[in-house]
Amino acid sequence: MTRLYAGLATAAVVALLGGSLVYVQMRQGDDAFAECRQGQIAGGDIGGPFTLVNPAGQTVTEAEVLTKPSLVYFGYTFCPDVCPFDMSRNVEAVDILAEKGLDVTPVFISIDPERDTPEALGDYAANLHPKLIALTGSPEQVNAAAQAYKTFYKKQETGDEFYLVDHMTFTYLMLPDEGFVDFFRREITSDQMAESVACFLKASKAGTGS
User: Fold this and answer.
1) pTM metric for this prediction
2) Can you tell me the distance from the alpha carbon of 32 to that of 195, in angstroms, rounded to the nearest whole number?
3) What CATH code is carried by the domain that includes residue 53?
4) CA nearest 138: which of 159, 162, 117, 163?
5) From CA 117, how far away is CA 135, in angstroms rounded?
6) Closest-CA residue to 83 (of 190, 197, 186, 153)
7) Which listed site, 50, 105, 183, 200, has its alpha carbon 20 to 30 Å from 193?
8) How many distinct structural domains can be found in the chain?
9) Burial profile 99-120: b = 16 or more Cβ within 10 angstroms, e = fewer
10) Spatial distance between the Cα atoms of 57 and 2, rounded to a whole number of angstroms
11) What separation in angstroms does the CA of 18 have from each of 4, 12, 42, 44?
12) % of the chain with per-residue pLDDT over 70
């Protein structure tokens, strides 16, 4: 069910992005990132202010979190299949980039604040990758962040603690001086993601230093 919803949601958001993003309309020579793009997007209304809670219980904003090039993913720690694969791919891409001397931060934003407490996310981050920033918050804070990134999720009401959460599976590339520049779908491999991110960093101010 989660995979089916993710596929349907992906199709829906691509249609939505047509109204909220500036699609690539410029000639290739006018777009510094044209050769790097996976999503065929030239920026737009994705990302923005958010206020969330880190594993230490501290309230943080996007200005404090997205200080370096970042791969932002919305998921939840109880996710049985999709999230583990996607996040493993993301942190593997981060390691590949590190070998190239490029410093990229993996970010995980929970869309299940009922179960994903700061403590739970602290354990999750510690087990997955030392650079991972894992964030949660109140339902209202999480919903505001998801809306800013045009991502969608829905809790399956099963009446018990074993519910699943249907959600989209995009990974968003955010650059400090540019904001949102592209997204990656599930089928992108860690090598492909690293290659694309490296291209963006070399073409931007973010590639001039860590």
Assistant:
1) 0.84
2) 16
3) 3.40.30.10
4) 117
5) 9
6) 186
7) 50
8) 1
9) eeebebbbbbbbbbbeebbbeb
10) 29
11) 22, 10, 11, 10
12) 79
CA atoms within 13 A on the CB side of 148: 22
Residue 194 lies in domain: 2-208
Looking up tokens 């996607």, which residue turns up?
86
> Can you tell me the distance from the alpha carbon of 204 to that of 33, in angstroms, rounded to the nearest whole number?
8
Which of 75-79, 146-150, 157-161, 192-196 has the lowest average pLDDT? Answer: 157-161
Backbone angles phi, psi at 184, to 5 degrees: -120, 135
Alpha-carbon gap, residue 53 to 61, rounded angstroms: 9
Q: Are 135 and 108 in contact (CB under 8 A)?
A: yes
Task: Please give the Cα distance from 194 to 189 (Å, whole number).
Answer: 9
CB 40 within 8 A of CB 26: no
**Over the range 165-200, which residues count as b (16 or more CB within 10 Å of their CB) and which as e?**
bbbbbbbbbbbeebbbbbbbebebebeebbbbbbbb
> Tens of pLDDT along 131-182?
999 999 999 999 999 999 999 999 999 989 999 999 999 999 999 989 999 9
Asked if residues 203 and 99 have their Cβ atoms less than 8 Å apart, the reply is no
Tokens of 126: 């510690």
